[in-house]
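Methods — Computational structure assignment.
A single polypeptide chain was analysed. Its primary sequence is given first, followed by the predicted tertiary structure written as structure tokens.
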Amino acid sequence: MNSKTKLSSFLRLMRADKPIGSALLLWPTLMSFYLLTDGNPNYFLMSLFIIGTILMRSAGCVINDFFDRDFDGNVERTKERPIAAGEISPNEALLLFFFLVLCSACLLLFMNLLTFLMALLGLGLATFYPISKRFFPIPQVFLGLAFSWGIIMVSSAQLGEINILSLALFLSCFFWIIAYDTAYALCDKKDDLDLGIHSSAITFGKNVTTFFFLLHFLSITILIFIAYLKNFHISFYFFASISSAMVIYQCFLIKDQDSTNCLKAFKNNNLVGLSFLCGSILGVTL
């Protein structure tokens, strides 16, 4: 394999060709910068978090594929992933993972000790999630914790503390992530059942659409409650209404558990997150 092809394989392993994962991480992280500072974030810190989010999302994809390398080749959607396809060895994947983590860790030199400690916990969660699929009935819980952890780190870096508002934002994001990853898990439900891998899509069973809606409902309700308490501008509620309409649309997409429509529902959350980011920025700045 020549160097150009190898580089392409590494980029695919990092999901550089699928930026939606980074976007889904970035929207709540950026939103927390505005909401925790009443619209006056530290833009230098924000730029570091944007870079760190992309790096850690890439690292998370690498370590996920490393742990799933014996499963991915048996799943239609993942059988062409670089490790499963033999394009990259497990040892090469581990080296890439540690390189990405090291690059991300360098950003912590500009942040306080609390943020460094929170980053260590976040790394542990991101690494543990792929393993949890083997024994925990709803591994999306650990994904929710890992993917929401950026909010905790924003709070520690920007404010030097973790307060009630940051915990509320964390909880809202946590429910949202479990919801959208449930739609994603529905795409692989049959393969996961055959392989004995756990997921919320399997655990929720015939009530998956109900749980999907309730998780979204909890997430949006927390954000609306925050907006009410902090007296956000009315523009926030306009964007919240748009996001709510998209959630209802997603419920219709997943109700028959068709893989193509479930993937559409998952991807639609990119717009949900962007909508809430826009609403939050306007809500605290107007």
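Note: The chain has a mean pLDDT of 92.
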